[in-house]
User: Fold this.
Amino acid sequence: MAQFTRIEVFQKMKETGLVPLYYNADIEICKKVIKACYDGGARLFEFTSRGDFAHLVFTELIQYTTKELPEMILGVGSVTDAAAASLYMLLGANFIVTPVLREDIAIVCNRRKVLWSPGCGSLTEIAKAEELGCEIVKLFPGDIYGPNFVKSALAPQPWTSIMPTGGVSPNEESLTSWFQAGVTCVGMGSQLISHEIIKNQEYIVLTNQVKNTLAIIQKIRK
Assistant:
């Protein structure tokens, strides 16, 4: 079961402002990636469930993080139905991220008091997610909607917390546009954890990039 409460997860999202996300079928690569992010200061990580037997990789990964990286809050993304959400929560997922809004996932996550973040693309979907108990919605794909959507959405409902995924880059210009628009945190995959870093095993580069990204976020928020 989850080691962190939904409130603890949400507070850490607000505090750090960053959720790296990544998937690889090779457990050793996953361990190196999450360790590099942890060393850079990240305290949340989304394992994207995108491959066959991904749950087996996650099982090893969460056992590793619980023992070796105790402050890391590990969750699962790309969850598409309640059955998958239930499976990952039984394996210890601390939060669930979905590409779309599904009430069945909301129900099983709420039953276990696990934070869930659904992919939303309209004010209607955001409102529905919040009615179902969502703390923070995922704006996906972020590059399609952009910071202006966030700014406009928050005008009539400033209580909403938004996490864009896709279209966010680890540089000051991109991060400034999103955080000044009002996002609570950002999700970053290949823009942060690039193919080149994995191919060349440059995990120290990843650590430094995460550290720099977190520093930029803190600077913007001042």
